[in-house]
């Protein structure tokens, strides 16, 4: 494999809420996502999910709290926990989770993205 | 859990080659490490290992090539592959790998660090 430059990879796409795979470690994938506006409430029944903010600011709403994340901050959403990502302005993030995880988890709708799309 | 600010966590220790755990995702751990100088040649027989540079520059030497990484760049070392991290000046990195992985892999020596040390 070659080294991966996060900012260069982020220049390769512009869609929101459409995760792009940039690397695999064992059966886990590293995905870059540009987010803006409201996502949907969902959970991932079988896995934790890690968010790392590369650029910008985002929020993750939970049933009992809201976590605000800015560049250089991360959060691990525990498996099975309902959450809703949100960004007022475009925010660039990296998500780490097992291969095969669908972005909208237990829900399916307009924001459900194609899986395993590499850039 | 609370959100994790990588730079604030990095202020909490100064030793080199001494990984500190900051988060877990399923059975994987996120570890911050400050590195400087030469590490030892080693491999991890059972797992890939991900390096992400937070600040500074590092190299990972392999038997057939050397990869240079700077801030915002990452590399996944495949399992079983001999490698030797190196940093001319102090470099701050995050390593992601399964819980229980020892920093020196198949070798043990002066640079073998205590495992599962949280900050």
Short description:
By secondary structure, chain A is mainly β.
Describe this structure in words.
Two copies of one chain form a homodimer. Chain A has one domain: Jelly Rolls (Sandwich). Helix content of chain A is 4%, strand content 49%. Chain A contains one helix and eight strands, in the order βαβββββββ. In chain A, strands 2, 3, 4, 5, 6, 7 and 8 form a seven-stranded antiparallel sheet that branches. The longest helix of chain A has 5 residues, at 6-10. The two termini of chain A are 13 Å apart. The model of chain A has no long low-confidence stretch (mean pLDDT 96). The interface between A and B is medium-sized, with 30 and 30 residues.
Keywords, please?
homodimer, mainly beta, Jelly Rolls, 1 helix
The string of secondary-structure elements of chain A, in order, is: EHEEEEEEE
List segments of chain A where confidence is low: pLDDT < 50 over at least 5 consecutive residues: none
User: What class, by secondary structure content of chain A?
Assistant: mainly beta
The CATH architecture assignment of chain A turns out to be Sandwich
Average predicted confidence as pLDDT of chain A = 96
CATH topology of chain A: Jelly Rolls
Largest interface comes to: A-B, 30 and 30 residues
CATH class label of chain A: Mainly Beta
> What is the beta-strand fraction of chain A?
over 45%
Q: Tell the overall outline of chain A.
A: globular
User: Oligomeric form of this entry?
Assistant: homodimer
Rg result of chain A: 13 Å
The biggest beta sheet of chain A reads: 7 strands, antiparallel
Helix content of chain A: under 10%
What is the fourth-level CATH superfamily of chain A?
Jelly Rolls
**Number of beta-strand segments of chain A:** 8
The total domain count of chain A is 1
Ends of chain A: how far apart?
Answer: 13 Å
Supply the number of helical segments of chain A: 1
């Amino acid at each position: 494999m070659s080294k991966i430059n996060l900012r260069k990879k982020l220049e390769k796409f512009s869609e929101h809420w459409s995760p792009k795979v940039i690397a695999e470690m064992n059966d886990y994938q590293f995905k870059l996502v540009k987010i803006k506006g409201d996502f949907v409430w969902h959970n991932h029944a079988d896995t934790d999910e890690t968010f790392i903010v590369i650029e910008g600011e985002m929020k993750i709403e939970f049933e009992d709290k809201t976590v605000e994340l800015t560049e250089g901050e991360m959060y691990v959403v525990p498996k099975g926990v309902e959450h809703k990502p949100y960004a007022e302005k475009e925010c660039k993030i990296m998500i780490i989770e097992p291969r095969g995880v669908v972005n909208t988890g237990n829900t399916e709708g307009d924001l459900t993205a194609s899986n395993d799309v590499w850039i």
